[in-house]
Amino acid sequence: MQNFIPNLALGRLRFSLIVVLGCIVLAFLNPAQAQQPIATLQIETSAICGMCKNRLETELGFLRGIKSATLNLDTKVLTVVYKTNRLKPDSIREKIASLGYRADSVPAEPKAFEALPACCQAEGLHHP
Q: Which fold has domain 38-121?
């Protein structure tokens, strides 16, 4: 019984030491991931309804490097948070245009626009 108590204490000490060392290793690995360059981009769109909002937010969410995409239907401004080491603003605008929507000065792709539901086409292809 007397040998059991020191062995138990030694086992706990080893476990604690392993946990502390593991935390130190993770602390050194995390900053590299946490310091990824992130930017926010606001893009004026031709989106007009809830279906447009859902389509844009969902499709952009699948694009690698996009952290979030949120469309304000009142202002028609899409706010995109993205990793600058993966994407450039123009590539995000081009993706939006490929979905059938104007993105700032980038016009919607005509075939994609024509494939949108009628309610999403209400403002027309060349709406400013």
A: Alpha-Beta Plaits (3.30.70)
